[in-house]
Amino acid sequence: MSVGISYLSVVPIRATPSDKAELVSQLLFGETFDIIEQQEKWTKIRLHHDAYEGWIDNKQYQLVDKLNSNKFVVDKNLLYKNKIYYTMGSFVDFDIKKKQQNSIISTAKQLLNVPYLWGGRSIFGIDCSGFVQIVYRVNGINLPRDAYQQAEVGELVDIENAKTNDLAYFANDAGKIIHVGIVIRNRNSIKIIHASGKVRIDILNKKGIYNEETKTYSHQLHSIKRIEK
Question: What is the pTM of this model?
Answer without folding.
Answer: 0.87
